[in-house]
Each structure stands twice: as structure tokens, then as C-alpha cells.
């Protein structure tokens, strides 16, 4: 057995150089996708890129047939018909969205009138001349109106402003269909995709009636357009298991969507490959349709068929892989937590690579995530790098090293990998349980760069304290490790444009924040005064210690006349019972509980609060500290005492801009200390708040920049 010292001394082969690192890629049973001339297995010959299609109705028995020219033309026409139908649906939806926008504007006007009425009734009530019943009725009407505005806002956010990007993706998906049907070669498809990526706005205008055009006509226009100059942008494909809003279990879902949208706004082409889960809400997918050409994927010693579905989500092209023989893999009640999770996600990872090769895609970067798709690294360098992907590089994102997936080495052969070759200390062998392989470790070793997503922790602190037995591996590969913070969607969370607010505001004009505070106080029947200090708190899972700390913090604050709003977002029944008892203990005229959180009230709490209590500054799921800063509310960590000396970062290592800003301004401050500064040094406090609002901690800022730098670095290898 290797000691820690000997393990550190092992020379790790460098995956970026497949010739040196991986001498002899395995030759698994070739993918069985027959060419029209029946000339053997494989994807295609360099001289003859045409491939036959699966017959959609016959995919269950894996029947592949030879198509005549007439049959192939029929299939092309069928694909064209599907796209034309999709375009008609899109046009109809666009009309509906315009109606929804007008209805939203009308509802916001009604809201302002209702708020004025409630304010008048509140004044009358305080003076003793108003009717309580009339005020209660107005407040109920306001809640109904806020719910209505929330629904309309969601509809607006889902559809407005994405028409051109969606049109580009319709064109990209049309190209996928062309290459799968053999009309164009993989190289031509790659050139066309790059062209669209570099000229999205121009392309959207030039091909605004794309789905009404026949393939030949569309191809002619693409060829005419292809002599335009090109900019440098990356083609990135995420192979992942979550994406918001389709399927969301943890922080991965919002990260994939937020980063992908940010990258595309900066001129890069991003697409996502997901399993087709039975629990997925596919109503969120625009233009969802099955590509009428299936493909085989190798697993457990055989070739197994898959269906491929495509669509657009938040302006991002998404492909869904649906296994046929292993259909039960993703037709379950939840995403994770099964004894065969290794088999499920290994199958998906291999199938994703097969699909990329067969569709002729040649991305710059394959972006993989956590252990579930970390096996893509070994698969890529051992099997796929020589299948037209020589220019592609691998980037692994880790959100938490706690989940790593340890398995018996023999299981690697299920997807075509060679267990003896990989069950080594410098490759996949686990550092402590050496008889097992560690899938996440394999992803780290075989990736060109590894991004650790953490807003607060430094690189050195993660390696030393949060690596969960991967410290030797991370130490050896530390040169390719970088830290990226989480972000938030600033198109939805921006007080200067937020339609949920009674009045907008910004760092240049803060009058609207006072209006929002008064509106929040009125909504919750708190004593209305803009001079009152209002503290909001969002929480989900609270331990007994957290509850005791929160109780002490709230009681100390209310003794000083501070108003506190506790927003509970837990779906856990046990936690809910704890919170009910907690609510009984905190009966106070200055405390309000919200246990039915809608989108509108969530925005109003951020806008109306002076301070937002946070369970932690590292909240990847809720992104509470990030939103608080944007809305001019100071994020303060929950603590039960004023005497705190917490060090959030390791100053000897790299850290994020968010970490630096928090540590310098609010990181070592208790709630009592924050209240003291507001009362005793308001000018200094206001400068901090305005500085916070001016910072950009969205997905488009540091998070996106770190990833672009990582993509740039690995493309130079």
C-alpha cells in the first residue's frame, strides 16, 4: 500500500497531451451506425459523411434500414415540417407574450392605485376614523394583485427579449438535423455553427423566416453568408445532470443556466446536454422535438439505442438523451440517491460523447460537473479524442468535494474503460480506500482545468480543509485549480428595473427604497415608519444551535425597536414543525413570519430591508447575500454575541472579489454592531451600502470572467 509520502511523489501523466498521457486508447466495440453503402461500422468515412437514420417508430428493436433517395427526401421533408410547425408555435407564443406584457403594465398601474388607497386607509385608521374592515379588504386585494403580477412577471421573463437568440438556436438545431441526415458534413456543420456564434444578431435578422425555408434553400443562404469575418468566441458544451428551471436539486442547476446565459451574452456559443428525466418539466422547453435520427451508445459490452430531443431553454440550446434499453435509468421519482447512480450517470456520460461525435460537433470545451459526469474525462482521453475532437479540452466544475462516488474498479469496463489501466494511484485509485476507484478524482486528474465554485473560501483553504480525502490529488494538480464565485440573475434581481417593486431605485437615487420599506411595513401590518430599522431573514434548514442563535439575535434587536421579518422557505416537514414552535417563542409586535413566499413578496423583502440576516455568506442555492448587496441591504451573518472574531478567508491564497468585499465591509460584523453603526455613524454606513449596490456580483461578472480565462488557458495547451 502506498504511503502519503510516496503518493505525493508519483508523477501524474498530463491529460492535456493525449499522446504522452494516454499511449494506447482502448478500442471498444465500434459504434454501429451503418452508412448508406453498408460499408462497415463507425460514424463515417472521411470521403463519405452521409449516414442513415434510425426509423423513429422502429427504435425499440434497433432496426436500421437502407434508405433510397426518395425515402431520404421524405425524411428531410418531415424534419422541415417539424421545424415549420415549431416556428408557427413560436410566433403564436410571441403574440401571447406581448399580450402578457401589456397585462403586466396594466396590473402595475392598478397596484400603484391600490397602494395609494391603502396608504390613505392606514392614515385614517391611525387617526381613528378609518374602518378596519375596509383596510383589511384592501390588503387582501393587494395580495391577490401581487400574486397576479408575480405570475405575469414570470411569463414576461420567460419570453420577452429572447426572440433573436431563440431564432439562432432554431437555426443551430436545423444544422444538427442536416448533419445527422447526411446532407452536410461534420466539418461544414462546425463551420456553420461557428459562423452563427460569431454573428448572432446579424444571423437572427438574416434568417428570420428560417423554419419556412427548405433545407436546400437554407443551405444556400448559409453558404452565401459564410464568407463573413469571424470573431473569437468559444463553443462550450455542458454535460450535466441539472439545469434551472427544468430540473433543480442543488446549486448546480442555477449555476449552469446563469453561467451559460452570461457566456452567450458575451458572444460565446453554449449548449447543454441533459438526461431526459421523467420528472422534468418539459413545458419550460421552447420548440421541444425529437430529432428523427437516433444513435447508439456503448454500455455493458453492447450497443444500445438512444433518442435525442432538442429545444431551447432561456435562450440556450439543450439536447436531452433518452435511453431506450435502459429507459428506467431516468424514469424515477428523484434525480439522485439510487444504488445504481454510477451506472446511470456513466451511461449518460458515454452517450453524451457519442452524440457529440455523431452530430459532428467540435466544441472548444466540454464542461463537466461534479462526480456524476467526471467520468467524461477518462472517456474522452482514452476513447474519443481521436474521433474528431483533437481540438477539444475538458473543464471540470466541483461544487462540493463531499460527494465523490467510490466503486469497484471492474465497473469501469461497463462504459468501455480499462480497469487495470486506471486503477492506479496517479489516476482513479482512491487515496484512502485503495481497493476502489474514485470517480471524482478521475475527473480532476483527466481534466485540463478544475473550477472550484465557492464565493467565500480560498483555494488553499478548500484544499486543506474541505477536500474530503482528496488533498493529495488536489495538491498535485493545484496549478490547474481556480476559484469562481456564484452569481445571480441581474435581469431578474435589479432594483432599478424590478417590476415587483412599488417604486424602483438605484445607488444614484435611493428614494424608491424608502417607498419599498413603507410598502413592506404596510403589507405585514408593521408600524409604518421609514426611520425604523427593518431586518429581513431568509432561512431554510436550521439546526438547534442556529435556532438558539437566531432567537437571541432577534430578541436583542427587537429590544432596540428594530422590526424583524423572518421568511421561511423550507419544504421539510420536520423543519416546519420546529419553526412553528419557534414562532410561538418569538411573539412580538415587531416580528413577522412569512411562510408562504411568493416571488413578489420575496423581492419586496430585499428592497424594504436595511439588513438581511444570512445563515452563511456561502449560500449557493438562495444567493441571499448577493441579492442583498444589490438591493442595498447589508448581509450580516447570524450570531448570538457581539464579540466575534471570525476569519472568512485565507489571505495567503487567491480569493474572490465578493469574499474581499464582504470581509472588508460586513464579514466580521454582528447585527448589534451593524445597528450601532447605523445609529452612530449613518454617513459611513450609507457609503458602504452605496458601494455595495455599485458592485456587480452577477453571473455576468467575476464568475463568467473566471470561466472565460479558464477556457482561454486550456485552449492554448
TrEMBL record:
Residues 1-24 are annotated as: Disordered. Gene3D superfamilies: Glycogen Phosphorylase B (3.40.50.2000). Signal peptide: none annotated. The keyword Transferase applies. Keywords: Coiled coil, Glycosyltransferase, Starch biosynthesis, Transferase. Residues 101-155 form a coiled coil. Residues 235-456 form the Starch synthase catalytic domain. Pathway: Glycan biosynthesis; starch biosynthesis. Pfam families: Glyco_transf_5. GO terms for biological process: starch biosynthetic process. Residues 1-11 have a biased composition (Polar residues). One of its GO terms (molecular function) is alpha-1,4-glucan glucosyltransferase (ADP-glucose donor) activity. It catalyses: [(1->4)-alpha-D-glucosyl](n) + ADP-alpha-D-glucose = [(1->4)-alpha-D-glucosyl](n+1) + ADP + H(+). Its EC number is 2.4.1.21. This is starch synthase. The lineage of its organism: Eukaryota, Viridiplantae, Streptophyta, Embryophyta, Tracheophyta. The gene is LOC115994395.
Amino acid at each position: 500500500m502506498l504511503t502519503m509520502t510516496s503518493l505525493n511523489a508519483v508523477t501524474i501523466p498530463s491529460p492535456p497531451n493525449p499522446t504522452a498521457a494516454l499511449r494506447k486508447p482502448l478500442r471498444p466495440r465500434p459504434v454501429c451506425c451503418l452508412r448508406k453503402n453498408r460499408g462497415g461500422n463507425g460514424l463515417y468515412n472521411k470521403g463519405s459523411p452521409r449516414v442513415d437514420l434510425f426509423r423513429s417508430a422502429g427504435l425499440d428493436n434497433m432496426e436500421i434500414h437502407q434508405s433510397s433517395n426518395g425515402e431520404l427526401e421524405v425524411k428531410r421533408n418531415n424534419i422541415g415540417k417539424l421545424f415549420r410547425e415549431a416556428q408557427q408555435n413560436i410566433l403564436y407564443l410571441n403574440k401571447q407574450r406581448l399580450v402578457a406584457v401589456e397585462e403586466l403594465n396594466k396590473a402595475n398601474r392598478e397596484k400603484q392605485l391600490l397602494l395609494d388607497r391603502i396608504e390613505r386607509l392606514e392614515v385614517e385608521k391611525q387617526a381613528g376614523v378609518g374602518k378596519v374592515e375596509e383596510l383589511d379588504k384592501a390588503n387582501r386585494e393587494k395580495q391577490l394583485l401581487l400574486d397576479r403580477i408575480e405570475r405575469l412577471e414570470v411569463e414576461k421573463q420567460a419570453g420577452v427579449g429572447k426572440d433573436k437568440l431563440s431564432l439562432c438556436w432554431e437555426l443551430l438545431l436545423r444544422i444538427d438535423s442536416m448533419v445527422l441526415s447526411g446532407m452536410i458534413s461534420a466539418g461544414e456543420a462546425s463551420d456553420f455553427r461557428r459562423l452563427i456564434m460569431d454573428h448572432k444578431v446579424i444571423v437572427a435578422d438574416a434568417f428570420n423566416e428560417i423554419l419556412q425555408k427548405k433545407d436546400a434553400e437554407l443551405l444556400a443562404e448559409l453558404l452565401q453568408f459564410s464568407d463573413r469575418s469571424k470573431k473569437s468566441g468559444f463553443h462550450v458544451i455542458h454535460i450535466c445532470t441539472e439545469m434551472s428551471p427544468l430540473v433543480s436539486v442543488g446549486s448546480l442547476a442555477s449555476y449552469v443556466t446563469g453561467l451559460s446565459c452570461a457566456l452567450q451574452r458575451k458572444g460565446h456559443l453554449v449548449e447543454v446536454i441533459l438526461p431526459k428525466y421523467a420528472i422534468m418539466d418539459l413545458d419550460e422547453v421552447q420548440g421541444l422535438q425529437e430529432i428523427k435520427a437516433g444513435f447508439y451508445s456503448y454500455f455493458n459490452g453492447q450497443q444500445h439505442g438512444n433518442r435525442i430531443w432538442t429545444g431551447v431553454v432561456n435562450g440556450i440550446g439543450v439536447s436531452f438523451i433518452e435511453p431506450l434499453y435502459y429507459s428506467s435509468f431516468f424514469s424515477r421519482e428523484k434525480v439522485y440517491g439510487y444504488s445504481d447512480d454510477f451506472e446511470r450517470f456513466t451511461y449518460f456520460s458515454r452517450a453524451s460523447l457519442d452524440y457529440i461525435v455523431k452530430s459532428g460537433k467540435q466544441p472548444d470545451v466540454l464542461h463537466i460537473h461534479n462526480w456524476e459526469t467526471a467520468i467524461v474525462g477518462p472517456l474522452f482521453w482514452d476513447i474519443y479524442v481521436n474521433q474528431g475532437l483533437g481540438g477539444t479540452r475538458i473543464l471540470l466544475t466541483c461544487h462540493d468535494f463531499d460527494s465523490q462516488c467510490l466503486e469497484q474498479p471492474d465497473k469501469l469496463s461497463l462504459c468501455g474503460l480499462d480497469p487495470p489501466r486506471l486503477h492506479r494511484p496517479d489516476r482513479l485509485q482512491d487515496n484512502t480506500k485503495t481497493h476502489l476507484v474514485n470517480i471524482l478524482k478521475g475527473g480532476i486528474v483527466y481534466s485540463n482545468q478544475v473550477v472550484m465554485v465557492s464565493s467565500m473560501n480560498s483555494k488553499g483553504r478548500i484544499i486543506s480543509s474541505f477536500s474530503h480525502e482528496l488533498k493529495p490529488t488536489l495538491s498535485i494538480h493545484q496549478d490547474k485549480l481556480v476559484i469562481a464565485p456564484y452569481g445571480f440573475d441581474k435581469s431578474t434581481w435589479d432594483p432599478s428595473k424590478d417590476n415587483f417593486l412599488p417604486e424602483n431605485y438605484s445607488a444614484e437615487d435611493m428614494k424608491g427604497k424608502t417607498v419599498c420599506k413603507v410598502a413592506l411595513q404596510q403589507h405585514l401590518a408593521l408600524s409604518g415608519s421609514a426611520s425604523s430599522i427593518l431586518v429581513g431573514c431568509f432561512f431554510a434548514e436550521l439546526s438547534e444551535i442556529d435556532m438558539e442563535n437566531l432567537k437571541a439575535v432577534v430578541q436583542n434587536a427587537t429590544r432596540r425597536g428594530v422590526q424583524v421579518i423572518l421568511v421561511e422557505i423550507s419544504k421539510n416537514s420536520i423543519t416546519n414543525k420546529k419553526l412553528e414552535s419557534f414562532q410561538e417563542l418569538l411573539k412580538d409586535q415587531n416580528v413577522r413570519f412569512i411562510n408562504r413566499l411568493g416571488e413578489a413578496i420575496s423581492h419586496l423583502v430585499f428592497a424594504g430591508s436595511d439588513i438581511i440576516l444570512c445563515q452563511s455568506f456561502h449560500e449557493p442555492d438562495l444567493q441571499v447575500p448577493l441579492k442583498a448587496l444589490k438591493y442595498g441591504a447589508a448581509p450580516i451573518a447570524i450570531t448570538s454575541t457581539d464579540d466575534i472574531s471570525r476569519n472568512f478567508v485565507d489571505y495567503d491564497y487567491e480569493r474572490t472579489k465578493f469574499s474581499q468585499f464582504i470581509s472588508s465591509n460586513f464579514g466580521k460584523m454582528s447585527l448589534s454592531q451593524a445597528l450601532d453603526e447605523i445609529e452612530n455613524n449613518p454617513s459611513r454606513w450609507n457609503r458602504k451600502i452605496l458601494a455595495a449596490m455599485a458592485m456587480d456580483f452577477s453571473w455576468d461578472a467575476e464568475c463568467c470572467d473566471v470561466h472565460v480565462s479558464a477556457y482561454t488557458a486550456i485552449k492554448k495547451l
